[in-house]
């Protein structure tokens, strides 16, 4: 969270995430810290993907986030949400089809997912991301703030 705040402060921006959202994520302070770091990593990724010079003008698809992520929260973090599509876990009927369609269509400029690092299908999605030049950023769905990026055109720092 400090890193995200530091990066936003350099740009003259602030995030209201810590004050408004962190208290509701986890009751225990250790788990609260893990949740804050993980959420900050996701917000930082989305912020970098929406920067005007990096990833074109297509949609940024955020598929089944494990956090309570909303466009309102992203806007409070000074992120332009016009090109962001948030698809909650409840809205996903056929996850595999959705991921494959997003990675192969020309209207998605990036896909953010939350799969386990050892997911069997992750390698397939990484292959499609590389083949179709669609950045795939996978924030591991375990209790870490790690992220993996699959695409030769992606230039986001993988570890926050």
Give an account of the 3D structure.
This protein is α/β, with parallel strands linked by helices. It has a single domain (2-150), classed as 3-Layer(aba) Sandwich (Rossmann fold). It contains seven helices and five strands; from the N terminus they run H-H-H-H-E-H-E-H-E-H-E-E. It has helices at 2-10, 17-20, 22-25, 29-49, 71-76, 95-104, 120-132, and strands at 59-63, 84-87, 108-113, 136-139, 147-150. Strands 2-1-3-4-5 form a five-stranded mixed β-sheet, with helices on both faces. A hairpin with a 7-residue loop joins strand 4 and strand 5. Helix 6 (95-104) packs parallel to helix 7. The model is unreliable at 1-27 and 152-160 (pLDDT under 50).
Helix-strand string? HHHHEHEHEHEE
Number of domains: 1
Main sheet specs:
5 strands, mixed
What proportion of the residues is helical, as a percent range?
40-55%
- Report the end-to-end length measured between terminal Cα atoms: 9 Å
Mean pLDDT: 76
Nearest-angstrom radius of gyration? 15 Å
Into which percentage range does the β-strand content fall? 5-15%
Task: Give the helix tally.
Answer: 7
CATH architecture classification name: 3-Layer(aba) Sandwich
Oligomerization category of the chains in this entry: single chain
């Amino acid at each position: 969270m400090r890193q995200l705040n530091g990066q936003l402060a350099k740009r003259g921006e602030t995030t209201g995430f810590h004050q408004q959202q962190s208290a509701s994520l986890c009751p225990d302070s250790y788990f609260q810290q893990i949740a804050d770091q993980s959420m900050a990593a996701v917000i930082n990724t989305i912020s970098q993907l929406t920067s005007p010079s990096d990833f074109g003008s297509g949609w940024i698809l955020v598929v089944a986030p494990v956090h309570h992520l909303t466009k309102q929260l992203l806007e409070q973090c000074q992120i332009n949400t016009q090109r962001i599509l948030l698809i909650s876990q409840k809205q996903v009927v056929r996850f595999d089809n959705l991921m494959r369609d997003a990675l192969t269509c020309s209207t998605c400029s990036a896909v953010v997912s939350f799969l386990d690092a050892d997911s069997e299908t992750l390698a397939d999605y990484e292959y499609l991301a590389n083949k179709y030049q669609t950045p795939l950023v996978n924030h591991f769905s375990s209790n870490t703030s790690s992220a993996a990026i699959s695409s030769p055109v992606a230039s986001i720092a993988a570890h926050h």
